[in-house]
Every structure is written in C-alpha cells, then in structure tokens.
Amino acid sequence: AQSVAQPEDQVNVAEGNPLTVKCTYSVSGNPYLFWYVQYPNRGLQFLLKYITGDNLVKGSYGFEAEFNKSQTSFHLKKPSALVSDSALYFCAVRGLTGANNLFFGTGTRLTVIP
Amino acid sequence: EAQVTQNPRYLITVTGKKLTVTCSQNMNHEYMSWYRQDPGLGLRQIYYSMNVEVTDKGDVPEGYKVSRKEKRNFPLILESPSPNQTSLYFCASSFAGSNTGELFFGEGSRLTVL
After folding, report:
1. Three-class DSSP category at A13
2. How far apart are CA B52 and CA B32, in angstroms?
3. B74-93 confidence digits (pLDDT tens)
C-alpha cells in the first residue's frame, strides 16, 4: 500500500534561515510524490511534484524538494524562510487506484519566527 | 476565476439530522474527490468520482454518500450524522487524464455534529 510519513508535527525556524520539512514514503512501484501547503482557513494548494527525472524538484514560492530513492525520502526545502511561509505542509503519494487519488501524510506545521 | 466552491463553510448540527455539503467546480474537471481532515490523521479520502455517474469509495466511506449527476457538482451526503463525523471536509478536483497530481481544493467545510 502507498503511504507517506511526516515525522515532525512542528518545525520552527528563524526567518532567513534554511528550512527542511521531512517526508518518507513507502510505495509499490515508482513513487509519484507531492507537496501541498495549507494556509490558515484555506484549502490545500499544490506546491510541487516528483514523477520522474531530476531528483531535485523546484516548485512554487521558492520551495524545492529532494527525492532520495535509497533513503525513501522526499524532503521539502527552502534556502531562506519567510514569515509568510508559516503554514501546514502535507506530503502526499499517488495511490494505485487512480492518477489523482492521493494519500496524504499527517502534516507538519511550520512556524517561521521573525 | 477558476475555483472549487463548497457550502456551507461552517455547520453545527445534531445527531441523525441529514445534511448535504455541496461542492461545485468551474474548471470542467472530470475528477472530483472528498477528503476529511482530522488532527493527527492528516487528510483521508472519503469518496471520489472519475466522471459523471462514476463514483468509488476511498479509505473512509462509512456513513457518507455521494452522487455525480453533473460534471461540475459532487455533493457529500451524511444521511444520519454522528459525532465522529465532526471534522473539516475538503472537496478537490482535477482533470482525469492529468498525471500531475495537482488537485484543486475548496476552502473547506467545518462540520460539528452534537
């Protein structure tokens, strides 16, 4: 079965510092991995995806994610955090039943401290 | 503006009183899905639809019904709500042929069942 795990419920980082939000995956076959962000009182927004190709994927708002097959990880990163990056971040993996059936992790709350 | 619209955004009801949460999208998407979000559990899929008159169960379908009579609408029906259905609900949509995993989410509907 497809699943992702986000080991940290909360990540705090100072503004201007690099940030990392962790995600590991367990899949049958090739992984199709995604990151979504949820701002307060809003729906989820797509950030980036890994389907195939380069292990470093660039997405919206300056975020990027590194796919590591040997460690089965897909960590979200940003070189310099902004206060406006504070939000809830979800890692997701495509299910086996359909192209857009995604299985989400439990979420990581990122707080960027001014 | 491309959007997924859910109504109501907030609802407090009592056990056993049937309710419907509507979802409408204006992007001509074939695929639509319902998720519920609970603290510590992330998002879990309730039902999804690949096209008109085609629906299927997700991971947590018990206590819910859906219908897809029109392409743009995908209502979620709780025939006899119970307190364990208190949750934040999200509708999402995308093109069925898309392999990107980029779902478009509504703003969410917060349901409380007393």
Report:
1. strand
2. 10
3. 999 999 999 999 999 999 99
